[in-house]
Specification:
- Keywords: Calcium, Glycoprotein, Membrane, Repeat, Transmembrane, Transmembrane helix.
- This protein is an all-beta fold and 137 residues long.
- It has a single domain (38-135), classed as Cadherins (Immunoglobulin-like).
- Helix content is 0%, strand content 55%.
- The strands form three sheets. It has a four-stranded antiparallel sheet with strand order 3-5-8-7, with no helix packed on it.
- A hairpin with a 2-residue loop joins strand 7 (84-90) and strand 8 (93-98).
- The chain is rod-shaped and about 95 Å long.
- The relative contact order is 0.24.
């Protein structure tokens, strides 16, 4: 919540006359990698037609990490290797898109997992599973 605290300190003795002094103490808070990334599905367009063109957007995702610096930088990937891939639309937002042709007679539904990993040491991870049914044409 705060990267820096400034504290004003004043001290007064009990002498006659009392003397005082003051200073400013600056406390810098260093971020540690204590927050895992979070992945939200913000939109889902299902089922996907087996004749959908390449590049068809299946889902919109939002990814964030409350840490700062490299601890808060998140990389995302789709697992397992599937006909779907991720396209970064802008920072923290991704589209799950169709990368290969579908054939419902071969595979009628995909289990897709979006994996997010932050840049901390050790890296923290998050996953979001999506079931993507394929409709017959």
């Amino acid at each position: 919540d705060a990267r820096l605290y400034e504290i004003q300190v004043e001290a007064t003795d009990r002498g006659t006359p009392p003397l005082s002094g003051h200073c400013k103490v600056v406390v810098e808070v260093l971020d540690v990698n204590d927050n895992a990334p979070e992945v939200w599905v913000t939109s889902l367009s299902l089922p996907v037609a087996e004749d959908a063109p390449l590049g068809t957007v299946v889902s919109l995702l939002s990814v964030s990490d409350r840490d700062s610096g490299s601890n808060g930088r998140v990389r995302c990937a789709v697992w397992p290797s599937s006909p779907f891939g991720l396209v970064s639309t802008f920072e923290g937002s991704y589209s799950l898109v169709l990368r290969e042709a579908l054939d419902r007679e071969r595979v009628s539904e995909y289990e897709v997992e979006v994996r997010a990993e932050d840049g901390g040491t050790p890296p923290l991870r998050a996953r979001r599973a999506l079931r993507v049914p394929v409709s017959d044409v």
